[in-house]
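Long-time lurker, first post. I've been practising inverse folding by hand and with some scripts of my own, and I keep getting stuck on stretches where the structure tokens seem ambiguous. Below is the full token string for one chain I'm working on. Before anyone asks, I'm not after the true native sequence, just a reasonable design that respects the backbone. If someone could post their per-position residues I'd love to compare against what I wrote down in my notebook.
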């Protein structure tokens, strides 16, 4: 299916191509503010093929072009062919798309039902869920929704770090320094303390590392005591992680931690050996990758026989391919693991798993103005603090803006706004960049923030409620396309589907966030300048109500794709 904005663009391109009378490749640009046109076709790239100056080409095209039903005019301006839309046909088209698709407005069928596995969150057991994992959780959840909206079948898998040498450390520390009462009160806190303690002690006495290694071997060999304790650690950590997932309203289809692949690594190692992809090197098994431009080899097995993070990731990818048959696997993991994924993907290709699209959806760090996060308190506490603080601040905001709400309503709105603010602060910035937490900015009612967008929705809903919550379905009144704010709102609503498409293609949720911010600004301009309920004629009133309803719908749908909910009042 084709959306109206897309159809208008195609009309412009096809009409121009026909007018040019030659095989030319055309591109579209958005005219700068102040130019009364909806699209511009730059003619500079055509100069060679058409043997004329761009200005001349633009003039010639403007004279020859035959416009389709969604276009009104085409005129030359410098080296550009400026095209304007037929406003009433365009507006009727956009309103028709909105009405027909309802909550699915903006969706597309690019995925064609294909499967995409999304590996996200993936915190490490018995350690802190870091803010890096928070980013992965928020970005991964948004990509999940975006892919679903583009007709992919997303599978969310939380690749928990629940295996590896750190459990030897923990088992040793547990048997040596456990504070039982502390463990019973706050198991994860005590495990963290043991972790830190081991580090300090082992710096003084390196022989402790050997003892930890012994414990790790026992665990790997299936010693029942070691296994039982390890399971207990996993259970406690999962419960703590779950609290955060509940607050964030994030869910996974699978939580298959690294330990799930314990019995699947042998086969991978054998396969790699048989294929000649893995070779022995000083007792270890490695995969050389210099032939594909990666200098550091991937280590499949250490000389002491231990497997590694890499080995498990290989087994994981192969398991996912065999089980889910994905077209793509996305790894939402910080950019500090870039080399790891380059090595992983290259090895998978060498092993013959080359027809899957592997993507490392990387992201930068979060920095907090309160200083570094790796404080003595541990980040797990801090992360919960951050979420609690967001809700507390949002509660104050609601109290101030809308004291007449009931107490339970205030709590609910505070949750929606506080958590929304955290998610949006992350998702509104290009994930590749490092981000700095800024409470004021995050909870601002008038900046690029979730509360501002939620507030925009609330205002739109307020108007609709006053109109009896009934969205008129009559033909769109051409008169309601006349003013600058009206037309800006109509075109903005029309662009949403394209933004969704781009966000999925580039794995960039911020494109949706940035679009919604612009939509909010456009809506506020409209709200400020154009009377809706007091419109001069009934036809105008009814069409403007459709615009308000469209803005509310797109705001709710778009924020929903980012995992941000909207309140009815705030
Ligand atoms: N647990 C890992 C970490 O915290 C992230 C795992 C990401 N996913 C993966 N398949 N490697 O660094």
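-- Answer (accepted) --
I ran through it position by position. Result:
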């Amino acid at each position: 299916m084709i959306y109206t904005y897309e159809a208008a663009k195609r009309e412009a391109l096809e009409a121009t191509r026909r007018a040019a009378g030659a095989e030319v490749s055309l591109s579209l640009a958005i005219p700068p503010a102040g130019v009364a046109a909806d699209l511009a076709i730059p003619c500079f790239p055509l100069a060679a093929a058409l043997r004329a100056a761009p200005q001349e080409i633009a003039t010639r095209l403007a004279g020859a072009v035959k416009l389709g039903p969604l276009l009104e005019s085409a005129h030359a301006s410098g080296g550009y062919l400026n095209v304007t839309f037929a406003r009433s046909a365009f507006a009727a088209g956009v309103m028709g798309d909105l009405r027909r698709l309802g909550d699915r407005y903006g969706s597309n069928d690019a995925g064609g039902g294909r499967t995409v596995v999304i590996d996200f969150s993936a915190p490490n057991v018995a350690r802190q869920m870091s803010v890096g994992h928070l980013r992965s959780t928020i970005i991964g959840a948004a990509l999940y929704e975006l892919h679903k909206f583009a007709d992919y079948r997303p599978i969310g898998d939380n690749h928990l770090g629940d295996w590896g040498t750190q459990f030897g450390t923990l088992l040793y520390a547990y048997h040596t320094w456990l504070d039982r009462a502390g463990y019973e009160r706050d198991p994860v806190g005590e495990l963290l303390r043991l972790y830190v303690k081991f580090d300090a002690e082992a710096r003084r006495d390196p022989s402790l590392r050997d003892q930890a290694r012994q414990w790790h071997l026992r665990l790997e060999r299936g010693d029942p005591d070691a296994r039982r304790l390890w399971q207990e650690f996993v259970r406690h950590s999962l419960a703590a992680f779950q609290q955060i997932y509940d607050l964030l309203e994030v869910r996974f289809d699978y939580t298959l931690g690294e330990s799930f692949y314990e019995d699947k690594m042998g086969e991978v190692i054998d396969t790699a050996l048989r294929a000649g992809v893995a070779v022995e090197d000083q007792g270890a098994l490695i995969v050389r990758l210099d032939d594909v431009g990666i200098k550091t080899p991937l280590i499949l097995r250490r000389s002491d026989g231990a497997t590694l993070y890499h080995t498990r990731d290989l087994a994981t990818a192969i398991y996912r391919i065999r089980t889910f048959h994905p077209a793509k696997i996305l790894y939402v993991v910080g950019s500090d693991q870039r080399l790891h994924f380059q090595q992983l993907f290259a090895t998978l290709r060498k092993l013959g798993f080359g027809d899957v699209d592997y993507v490392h959806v990387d992201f930068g760090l979060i920095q907090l103005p309160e200083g570094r996060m790796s404080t003595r308190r541990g980040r797990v506490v801090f992360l919960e603090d951050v979420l609690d603080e967001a809700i507390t601040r949002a509660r104050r905001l609601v109290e101030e803006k809308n004291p007449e709400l009931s107490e339970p309503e205030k709590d609910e709105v505070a949750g929606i706004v506080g958590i929304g603010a955290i998610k949006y602060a992350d998702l509104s910035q290009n994930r590749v960049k490092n981000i700095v937490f800024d409470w004021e900015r995050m909870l601002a009612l008038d900046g690029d923030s979730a509360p501002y967008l939620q507030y925009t929705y609330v205002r739109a809903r307020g108007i609709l409620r006053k109109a009896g919550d009934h969205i008129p379905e009559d033909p769109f009144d051409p008169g309601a396309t006349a003013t600058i704010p009206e037309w800006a709102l109509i075109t903005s609503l029309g662009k949403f589907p394209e933004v969704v498409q781009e966000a999925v293609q580039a794995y960039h949720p911020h494109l949706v966030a940035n679009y919604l911010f612009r939509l909010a600004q456009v809506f506020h301009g409209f709200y400020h300048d154009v009377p809706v309920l007091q419109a001069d004629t009934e036809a105008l009133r009814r069409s403007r109500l459709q615009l308000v309803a469209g803005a509310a719908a797109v705001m709710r749908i778009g924020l929903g794709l980012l995992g941000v909910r909207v309140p009815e009042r705030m």
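A couple of notes from the structure itself: Residues 119, 122, 124, 159, 161, 313, 316, 331, 333 surround arginine (CB under 6 Å). The chain is about 55% helix and 10% strand. Happy to go over any region you disagree with.
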